[in-house]
Write a structure and sequence with these properties.
The chain is α/β, with parallel strands linked by helices. Helix content is about 40%, strand content about 20%.
Length: about 280
């Protein structure tokens, strides 16, 4: 069977799945092509190429897994983030393409500084922290997460990629070394911000497969952890340092208010042109 026919059949199957959040135009075609390339061992394919039976069966099995809502990075075992191939494992938050904007904002601000220090809270598998370590090589990068599994995966990613970053388990700022108090140039955070009552409304691919603690802090408005992170930022940021928080558009104004209340200035919502929605709220100490 030709690759184009296989992809067309897979797109139809994916579109029929109620477990997938069909939020992005042409997403099913992008995913089908991605999984076919994965089934081929990473090799690009020609639409008119005849796909061997063994590869076809492997591809169809991958598509079947996807129809259950299983995230693509879990299926493939990795995600590509700003050019880095990061291991992805069940039990650890799935890297999001949208978070590349958060990393880009951090990198832009750190490049202006001498001996910059960056802290990534709720780091997961080290997604933003490792992007910063890769793109601002002279920086000192720290990532913290409540999950020991997440920290272990972040360390594994750092070792594989030969990137210099320190990952420690603990609550927000608690596990950071005291020598960076008042010396951090940029703090990044992609927090769990889903309100407890909204959990049941999440798509199956998120609610059924990703750890609950990475989605919500179980507060009524979903901003309990964000509020603590904002309140504590001033102790760790150097004068002129930045706090960058990725949130959904409906949370942006509330997060901006928290930042202003905590004494941060130049607070504003910034928009990713690629996704066209507010993604990162920024504030300066």
């Amino acid at each position: 069977m030709k690759a184009s026919r296989l992809v067309k059949n897979a797109v139809r199957t994916l579109k029929a799945s109620d477990a997938i959040d069909h939020w992005q135009r042409d997403r099913e075609e992008i995913e089908a092509e991605d999984l076919l390339q994965h089934a081929l061992g990473g090799y690009a394919f020609d639409p008119d190429e005849e796909i061997p039976g063994g590869v076809r069966r492997r591809f169809e099995a991958l598509i079947e897994r996807r129809t259950t809502g299983e995230p693509i990075p879990y299926i493939k075992g990795y995600a590509v983030f700003r050019g880095l191939r990061l291991l992805a494992r069940p039990g650890v938050f799935v890297p999001r393409d949208s978070t590349e904007f958060l990393a880009a904002q951090a990198v832009r601000r750190l490049r202006r500084r001498k001996g910059p220090v960056e802290v990534d809270l709720a780091t997961g598998g080290g997604t933003v922290a490792l992007a910063v370590a890769n793109e601002v090589r002279r920086s000192s990068v720290f990532g913290t997460d409540l999950s020991e599994d997440a920290v272990a995966l972040a360390r594994k990613n750092a070792k594989r990629l030969k990137l210099r970053a320190t990952f420690v388990a603990g609550d927000l700022y608690a596990p950071l070394p005291r020598e960076v108090v008042g010396a951090v140039d940029v703090i990044t955070l992609h927090p769990p911000y889903v309100a407890k009552r909204e959990l049941r409304e999440l798509p199956d691919e998120v609610r059924r497969f990703e750890p609950v603690h990475t989605l919500t802090d179980r507060s009524a408005d979903g901003l309990g952890l964000v509020e603590r992170a904002v309140r504590g930022a001033g102790e760790w940021l150097r004068p002129g340092g930045w706090l960058l928080i990725e949130v959904s558009p409906d949370r942006a104004k509330a997060v901006a208010r928290l930042m202003r209340r905590a004494g941060l200035r130049e607070v504003k919502s910034t928009k990713d042109r690629g996704f066209g929605v507010t993604r990162v709220v920024v504030g300066r100490w």
